[in-house]
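FORM 12-B: Structure-to-Sequence Request
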């Protein structure tokens, strides 16, 4: 065997080992297929059925995408949203519970007399029209900024979780008298679960499940483990993946792995403090994360049981492998050559991963 052939054989063998080991995989192992281009950022999306996606566009419109025909229908009866800065129409999710199968849940920024605020709503569809719109929670997170609204939705069997950013005011995240910088937990009708951690505390809002968050734009409930995963934007560095637990404080802005935008100065008091949770993973420099999922499926066996997040600033899909103790994360970045800000993620019943970008493109991932 010649020298070049030996090197080629060694490379192929090494690649096969890495692929089977399940921690790294080559960029060339993945391809994307574009389904449609939409006229705005695809902030959120979910499957109505195996052939139809409902997507939310940041400017305030919902659309239906028929996957076999690659056709798009714009819905009527859209809400009035505060479409400014990071505000607009955000996530959209369809519950899996049979008793709620006619409802869709969404988060959006609503203009109020006290300033724009993240709002949880639900609605139904009649043909291509939005009907029975209900604002379930107009959160107490109003500010005069257009920053850090969050917001993602996740469903457990019994509850809704929604994430809200600190709204550009850092001190909000540690203040339990507002909803900003928090993850909230509600019943499906918007009422408050009796076992929420701050129920009965006169110095805290009862919807709060966890606090000390900067701007969590990814939220995912893993029904197999009952783990609630969040991913949030740090400042200059310090993006975090967190395993969210009842009543816990995740530290922002007291502790952070990020730096100030105006100079190489650490944010807060440091990276650790008693009574404040450490992230499962943090990013320095920032990747600017968005949606997050934990993949369980057979279409991409090398991705099974790994966390997957979109990245806005560094424009890739971020793959995170955790050990059984949810520690020692190993990371890989794919689709770096797509050069698009990956905003939203969804998985169909077969296990195919779909994602939407700020450029308005809807893709699915294939080999």
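FORM 12-B RESPONSE
SEQUENCE OUT:
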């Amino acid at each position: 065997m010649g020298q070049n052939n030996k090197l080629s054989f060694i490379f192929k063998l090494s690649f096969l080992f890495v692929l089977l080991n399940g921690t790294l995989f080559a960029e060339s192992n993945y391809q994307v297929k574009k389904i449609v281009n939409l006229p705005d950022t695809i902030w959120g999306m979910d499957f109505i059925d195996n052939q139809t996606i409902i997507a939310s566009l940041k400017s305030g419109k919902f659309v239906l995408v028929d996957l076999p025909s690659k056709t798009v229908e714009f819905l009527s009866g859209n809400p009035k949203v505060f479409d400014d800065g990071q505000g607009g129409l955000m996530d959209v999710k369809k519950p899996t519970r049979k008793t709620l199968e006619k409802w869709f849940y969404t988060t959006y920024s609503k203009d109020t007399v006290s300033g724009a605020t993240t709002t949880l709503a639900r609605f139904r569809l009649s043909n291509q029209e939005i009907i029975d719109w209900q604002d379930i929670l107009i959160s107490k997170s109003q500010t005069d900024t257009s920053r850090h609204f969050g917001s993602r939705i996740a469903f457990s069997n019994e509850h809704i979780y929604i994430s809200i950013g600190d709204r550009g005011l850092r001190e909000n995240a540690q203040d339990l008298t507002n909803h900003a910088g928090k993850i909230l937990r509600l019943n499906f009708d918007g009422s408050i679960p009796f076992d929420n951690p701050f129920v009965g505390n006169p110095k805290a809002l009862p919807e709060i499940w966890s606090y000390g968050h900067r701007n969590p734009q990814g939220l995912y409930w893993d029904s197999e483990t009952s783990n609630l995963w969040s991913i949030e934007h740090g400042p200059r560095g310090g993006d975090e993946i967190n395993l969210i637990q009842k009543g816990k404080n995740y530290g922002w802005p007291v502790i952070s792995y990020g730096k100030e935008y105006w100079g190489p100065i650490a944010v807060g008091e440091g990276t650790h403090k008693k009574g404040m949770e450490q992230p499962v993973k943090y990013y320095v420099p920032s990747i600017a994360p968005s949606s997050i999922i934990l993949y369980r499926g057979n279409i991409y066996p090398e991705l099974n049981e790994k966390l997957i997040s979109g990245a806005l600033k560094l424009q890739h899909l971020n793959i995170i492998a955790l050990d059984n103790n949810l520690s020692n994360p190993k990371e890989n970045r794919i689709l770096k050559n797509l050069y698009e800000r990956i905003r939203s993620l969804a998985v169909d019943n077969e296990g195919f991963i779909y994602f939407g970008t700020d450029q308005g493109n809807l893709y699915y991932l294939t080999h």
